[in-house]
Amino acid sequence: MKTLEVYLAEYFDGIELAPALFYETNKAIRFEISESIAFDEPDFLKQAFYRSITLFEAVFGEDDEIMMVTDVHTNNHFLRDRPLNVYSKFIKRKELLYTLQFSTIPNPYGEEEEELQTHRFMLTCKKQDIRYMQLLKAICYEDYSDPTTILKRNLESGYDIFFINLSQNIIYHLYDDRGCDIIASDRESIRFLYEQYSDWILEYDRQEVDQDFA
């Protein structure tokens, strides 16, 4: 099996798997996941849940092979004490956890956060192996006080979760409740997202997206 670095070099011109993917390629769409409304409003994340789940289901088919990459940026040792919640809570088939790959990589945030260390976890699976609805909701909730959040009491730590469709060569990154980057090795493979969900494209980046897809 190819390493992640070899795969990214072959299909994505060797880009770094880090925020913000949208600005690293011209085969990308940045979607607005939720409009800015007060967090104390009823159902304030309802739109974020709907859009993030809808886009995920559009990108990943039942038979597609998925690589789930989780980068945890931390300066403490909590990862040594207990397994990462994102895998123990959101993977249905517990035997898959024995195939989890782990490495330490350079911190993508550079000198500004030089004290942080990034731990990378990788798991290959299928969509039906992931409790993806609950996981996407947890990502949306991460900036709020909610029991579903992934890192919970480790407030000084951060994370990024990337879902790579190895069958279609598409990367999905829901970076928080505000937005989602979707990039592809072949622009035509995500044109249907541009056409079907045009109203969801983030206005700030719409001109750039239109230039690439129109």
Give a written overview of the molecule:
This protein is an alpha+beta fold and 214 residues long. The chain has one domain (19-213). 27% of the residues lie in helices and 22% in strands. It contains 7 helices and 7 strands. The protein has helices at 4-11, 46-59, 78-81, 85-90, 132-140, 191-196, 203-213; strands at residues 28-32, 66-74, 101-105, 117-125, 158-165, 170-174, 179-184. Helix 2 packs across helix 5 (132-140).
- Share of helix, binned: 25-40%
Order of helices and strands: HEHEHHEEHEEEHH
- Radius of gyration based on Cα positions: 17 Å
Largest sheet: 7 strands, antiparallel
The tally of strands reads 7
Mean pLDDT, rounded to whole units?
Answer: 85
- Strands of the biggest beta sheet: in what spatial order? 1-7-6-5-2-4-3
Spatial shape: globular
Instruction: Determine the strand fraction and express it as a percent band.
Output: 15-25%
Q: Helical segment tally?
A: 7
> What is the domain tally?
1
Provide the low-confidence segments as ranges: none
Which structural class do you get from the secondary structure elements?
A: alpha+beta
